[in-house]
Structures are given as structure tokens and as C-alpha cells.
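Contributing: when you submit paired examples, paste them exactly as shown. First protein:
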Amino acid sequence: MREGEFDEFFSANRKQLTHWHPGLSPRILKENTVGLSEEEIRALKNQLLQGVPLAYAVEARFFYEALFFVDDRVLIPRMESELIIELLEKKWKGDYRTLLDVGTGCGCLGLSAAIKFQDLSCVVLMDSSPKALRVAAINREKLSYRFPPSCSIETRQASCVENLPRADVIVANPPYIKRSRAFAIHPQVYRYEPHEALFVEDEHYEHWYRRFFDLVAHSICGGGLFVMEGEPDLLPGLLSMIAEYDRVEKCDLEKDLTGKLRFLWGIFEDREVHG
């Protein structure tokens, strides 16, 4: 690659690149193309001009403490989702041994937790999409040297509104955007990332989350911790919904780095469900 090649590329295509890739810069491109051949860089430039996300083009995204393989079968991990791992750390109890990652996608939450919390004995990466689970399995193998030797990590295909296995900790990044608000997301996200991982139909939204919370309340172990990411405007309503469950001892919302509400968490007591 010639010195200044990406600067020239940006100068010649600034309008198109800034439309599709907010925050992208020649420096970021240079950092993400180390080791690529000239032919691969030419192909990458063409993809970027078409709007293909950089993470898909280079098939990689750094998340928390690891580099993950990603492609268009899964959502691209976002920096704000790393705060889920930090929230787990704040609420973590020493006797937590099992973790369920609902809507795992590339596996970034569940696998990052397995790296962070070395006392885990079992992590289940669950998704309704078999394509997404194949990506999660790639990352499980890629990062296997960093997991506790005694921790089993399995993938499971299932809908999060059909069945959840028992777990001490449940993390989730479910589809949380109402279909009617699709206009509000960036056109690159709408065009390239899997819609089944983004949207819930408006008329099904409340029922979908009621069913999901039913399953969480029935499946989480006593003293267990639940953390999910959600739509800022809709999280207060979801907090009220989950607070109705008798097993919920504590629950609240947390903000992301921009000051927006982004996460819902709850701690569940060890008793039968009545909600």
C-alpha cells in the first residue's frame, strides 16, 4: 500500500464514504487493513463505496477484549454493548457458574463473559438463526485458548420466545426496534445487517417481550442476574413490565456512554413464579 493511499481515497470519495460510514477515517482504514494485499485493498475500497460495512468487508470486529469474526449473517457488535460485560462485573456473584447468551449472533457477549469470568462452568450461545450460530461456533473455536479449561461452551438453536435453558446469568441483545421505526436507523444498518436480529413487528412487541420475560422468570436460577440491551424510548415500559414478576428482587435501567438509557437488569429471587 502506498503512503497516503487512503487519504487520497477519502479525498476523492468523501461524500459517498461519509454517507455510508459515519466515523470512518483513513487512520481506521489503515489499522484494519494491515497485511492485506494490493488486490484485497482494491476489493475493499469497492465494497466500501457500495456501502458494505467495514467489519463485513474485513470480516472482523474487536469487542471488549477479543477480535471476533463477523459477516453478514450476524449483527456487527457495537461498542456500547461492551457495557453489558462491565455491568455483569458490577453485579457478579461468586457462585454464578452458568450463563445463557440469548440472541448470541457472533457470540460476542457469551464468549467475552467466558473470557472475563473464569469461574464459569457452562456457557450456552443461543440464537434462532442457524447461520448466526455457525459464526458463533467459528468464534468459539478461534478463542478457545482463552476460556477456562473446565468451561463447556455450546451453541443451541432456539427462539428466545419458545424455550430457555436454566442459567444463573442470562444476557440478551434481542431484536428491540419496532418495525415502524426502521426509518430512524442508519441506511447502512438497514441495508446490510440481518433484519430478524433488529426488528419486532409493532403489533407483536408487547406480547413478544411479555413472553420473553415469562421464560426468563421461569428459567433463571435463584439469585440469578438478567441483563439485556434495548431501545432507549421503550426501556422504561419494559422495566415496568419485568418489575411485575414476583421473583424480581431488584431491577433498574442503566445508561450507555452517550447518556441514553440502553440496558435493563434484574436480580431474581429463589421462589416460584406467580407473575
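Second protein:
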Amino acid sequence: MTPIGQWKVVVNKDGYETADSSHDPAALNGWLLVPPPQVDVNIGLVSTAAPTVSSVTATADTIQVVFSQYMDISALENNQSLITVSQGGQSIPVSFAFADREVSPTDNSKYYGRILNITRTDGEKFAQDILSLKVKKQFVNYAGTAFADDYTASDLPLSQLVAEIIPGYEKGITATAGKERTISVTVKDSSGNSVAGEAVTMSAAYGDLLTLGNTTAVTNEKGEAVFTITGNRFGKEVLTFISANSVTATASAYVSDKDPVLLGDADGDGEVTILDATAIQRKLAAFTVESFNEEAASITNMKLNILDATVIQRYLAGFSSAYSIGKDM
């Protein structure tokens, strides 16, 4: 129980300036009065590190720049020469828009953002491998801290811009205590196409329920980033997946003593292979199939039929599927 009186909360964190609750809206002359109970105390932390560029992704229509910290948007609006784009050595006209523009929590006249989209204003397209971006060191973050040096990215390749990360586990991910398993997420662009060669990071909210075999994976030709996890103790975990341009998705993970059942795993061996399509075909032909899981085999949500074997074959051949084959049921 907090004694009656005037209080100030002080926060220390490596890499940040010491902060306190004196600027909270409920503070009176810098102090929080108790009573009443003080909840949702707002203490803003200011990083001592200089901002930098976390990633740059170029497409034919947009260059997306992700900064390591929230930047002062007014600084760029007042001086658009802070960021320049050239193509083949020639400066080109561009416009700027922060995708995550938000108002300052302490000053309604200021706006900050981390994800900057740059587009051409002359109606032309950005070109492959002759594209360069420069951010001058005078560009400042929310605390007024400038870049340590100019940032330059040259000969930018054109790629696809990640718009969505799809875990695909509608009922959550099942992890068995003491066993390693493979999970995957699918990365797509704004047109719904799979994005290959994209780095995705995975993190766990609590940390001790699961052991993460790898925290970074690069998407394959089907846009899948593959990870391994091992259950440590029973409970619910939340996994977060983030792309280089800060697109985020989450999935619940449940650690139990039961092995997961995968959609399409007709023979119950823990993975989806051509043997599952064969098992379905044999079952339909009235042969005896040991350990056959009809629920997992009925992919198309109808009575077991030859189409279920076909969609597995197409999935294994790399075709896109409307069904979450290989995912937990």
C-alpha cells in the first residue's frame, strides 16, 4: 500500500535519459498526489542514441525507409532537401508521406513517424540498380537528436514491398513440451503475391515457455519464413513476427502434452508429404490405411474425396492454396 503523500516516479534505463512522472497530466507542481490512486502514469523515455536507417526497400512505385526511431516530421516538411533521391546520377522530384504519422503525446503541434514512403511526382517509375537515396545528418528525431553522419544507399534493387505477414494458424500454434517442431509464416505484398528473400524476425512475449530455435528466417520462393520452436512448460505464449519494413503479425502458441494435428497429415506421421495423398487415394479405394486421420485428410471441408489428394499434390508442387495445409487444426 502506498502511503498518503506526494510522489514522483523515476525511471532509469540503459541508453535512455533518466525520466520521471513530473510531466504526467495528473501531476501537481511535478508531484503525484495520493490519494486518489494514480493509474496510467505517463513517463516518456528519451533515447540517447542517434537515429539511423533500419531498412530501405525500393519498388517501381515507392521507396520505403524505416528509421530506427521516431523522426520529427516537421523537420522534413520544413526542409525537404534533408532527403534526396537520384536515378542514374540525376536528382528526381519526389514527395514524402509517413505511413505511421502520429501526434506527439506532449505537443499537439508536432508529429512523428518511423516509416517513410517516397514517391515520384513526375509520373515516372523508379528504375532498377541505378537508384540512390541520401539522408542528411541534420535530420532529427523526436528528441531533436540528429544522425551521426549522412546516410547513403546506392544502386538500390527493385523488389516487392511487404504488406502482410500471415501466420495461418487460425486456432493457434500447438507446441509439445520437450519436442521441437517447425512452424512457418507467409509474407505477401500489397497485390497478394508471395515475397521471396525477405528477412522475418520472431520473438516471444514471455520467453520461458518456448525455446526459439532461430529468431530470423528468410522467405523461400513460396514466401514462407520457417522457424523451429520447442515447448518448455505448459501455458500460452504469444509469438510476434516482424519484417524489415516493420510489418507485424502475432500468433498464439500453446504448450501442452499433445502433438499437433496438421491439416493434410492423413497418415498421422507429423508432416504433410506425398504419402498423405497416397493414403487418401488408398482410403477412397477401400484399402485399409493404418493410423488414417480422416479429419486431417478432409481438407476441402467436404466428405473425403479425391480433391483432398489433389490439393496436397498441388501444395507439395509449390502451387498456392486456399487451404492452410500443414498448419495446426
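If you have annotations for the second protein, write them as plain sentences, like these:
The chain has four domains: 1-46, 53-153, 162-256, 261-329.
Residues 274-284 form the longest helix (11 residues).
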